[in-house]
Amino acid sequence: MVVCLRFPSLTSSLFSSATANSLRRSPAFLRRRSTRQLQPLPLAAARFSAQGTAATEERAGEKSKSGANSQERVITPRSQDFNAWYLDVIANAELADYGPVRGTMVIRPYGYAIWEAIQEYLNVKFKETGHSNMYFPQFIPYSFLEKEASHVEGFSPELALVTIGGGKELEEKLVVRPTSETIVNHMFTQWIHSYRDLPLMVNQWVNVTRWEMRTKPFVRTLEFLWQEGHTAHATPEEAEMRLYR
Q: Of 35, 221, 16, which Cα lies nearest the Cα of 118?
């Protein structure tokens, strides 16, 4: 029997005090120390989220106007409006900017440095436990998702589909990767022939696409970066033991 397992959420470990200290020591973790006078920034952060209320947009417009007469960027107090504060911090820290397609974002150098630090820290942890980095294709046959009804049901409204390639209509629709379970499981069946091929433990750092109706930078955008780990084991007990290591 082959048991497949995905890594659990890494949110808690990424933001623990020990991890934070490690990231601060990481050479890839850049800290801004510039003392130059900041120029006014037109605040359009509310556009980052489709959830922005009319009141938030109005405040953003007021800040944009006042910015012309101010030498400092304004950040909404968190106690006053958490959503506006969050977007203001991202804009003022130059972590990300708006992409030309609704719901997308450009990760700027400071923001990407944080991602590099996370990768650097976790890659060491993954390899210490025997995982290897791999890369699986971004385009997945639609039939792969149809084989697993739960995937189609869970992702159907969010799927981005490719129907034309090279100027011709494709015989089968391709899904732009929303997650990789289906294609990983397909490849595992090609590689695992007996218990001697187990355990098989892989990880990949990739982008995924989900056609979100409501987006927020670094929380959920149309396209975002993540890691996903997939493992296969001979027994459920071994899989569970790996899960909690």
A: 16
Q: Which range in 19-23, 28-32, 60-64, 218-222 is most confidently predicted, on average pLDDT? A: 218-222
For the entire predicted model, the pTM comes to 0.70
55-88 burial code (b ≥16 CB/10 A, e <16) = ebeebbeebeeebeeeeebbbbeeeebebbbbbb
What's the gap between Cα 120 and its chain centre? 16
Judge whether 239 and 198 are in contact, CB under 8 Å.
no
Tokens of 219: 């929380």
pLDDT of residue 72: 64
Predicted pLDDT of residue 73: 76
Beta carbons within 8 Å of 161's beta carbon, 6+ residues apart? 142, 173, 174, 175, 176
Would you say 184 and 144 are in contact if contact means Cβ atoms under 8 Å apart? no
